[in-house]
Amino acid sequence: MCMGAALNARIKRIVYGAPDCKAGAAGSVYSLCDDPKLNHRIEVIKGVMKEECRELIVEFFRKRR
């Protein structure tokens, strides 16, 4: 859903740290941003501060449980 919104908004670049290994559509599981059937491409820069981002996400969901 987020990648669909980004494509419709014609965002030029997405930068993220931690991949979503279950449902990521920016190169983790799917790569919608590179789908030749679509008329817009998004540059994806992944893995920026990967370990720090992973720790933030793990801690966030640990607190929610």
Name the CATH homologous superfamily: Cytidine Deaminase, domain 2
Q: How much is the average pLDDT?
A: 92
Coarse morphology: elongated
Which band does the percent of strand residues land in? 5-15%
- Which architecture would the CATH scheme give at its second level? 3-Layer(aba) Sandwich
**Succession of helices and strands:** HEEH
* Strand line-up in the sheet with most strands: 1-2
First and last CA, distance:
24 Å
- Broad structural category: alpha+beta
CATH topology: the name is Cytidine Deaminase, domain 2
Q: Write down the Rg.
A: 13 Å
Number of domains: 1
Question: Can you tell me the CATH class?
Answer: Alpha Beta
Report low-confidence residues grouped into runs of 5 or more: none
Q: The biggest beta sheet, please?
A: 2 strands, parallel
Helix content: 25-40%
Number of beta-strand segments: 2
Number of helices: 2
Polypeptide structure, described:
The longest helix has 15 residues, at 50-64. 34% of the residues lie in helices and 12% in strands. It has a two-stranded parallel sheet with strand order 1-2. It has helices spanning 2-8, 50-64, and strands spanning 13-16, 43-46. It is of the alpha+beta class. It has a single domain, classed as Cytidine Deaminase, domain 2 (3-Layer(aba) Sandwich). It is elongated.
Would you spell out the secondary-structure blueprint of this structure?
Elements: H1 2-8, E1 13-16, E2 43-46, H2 50-64
Parallel strand pairs: 1-2
